[in-house]
Amino acid sequence: MPRLVGLMAVDARETARAHGVLLAAPDRPDFSRTVADHVVRQYPPPGAGVPRGAVVTVWFDAGEGGGGSGVREPRRPDVPHGGMRREPAAEEEPRVMSLLGLG
């Protein structure tokens, strides 16, 4: 199995084709049109013995802006510095807005 990590999608497809394996990309439904994204992970790993026609799974970098690629664990939102804050009561709202320069 060749090393595909670090290659652009178009190069990874060509390398896989030259070695007689097929590629699957679960994080890229449009994988056949993906060109410039870089492979960041592959399975089976480089050097593993795989038969011709085997399917190799690759994952891609999210790139600029975070994308949406990859399998991600759920993240909890961070608590603001200083802990949680209560919402101002309705009677406090005008005073709070003026302190913030919004009212």
TrEMBL record:
What's the short name of a Pfam family annotated to this entry? PASTA
Q: Which stretches of sequence are listed as region Disordered?
A: 63-103
Task: Tell me the ranges covered by the PASTA domain, including all copies.
Answer: 1-62
- Which top-rank group of organisms is this from? Bacteria
Q: Show the ranges annotated as biased composition (Basic and acidic residues).
A: 72-95
Q: What is this protein called?
A: PASTA domain-containing protein
Record the organism: Streptomyces glaucescens
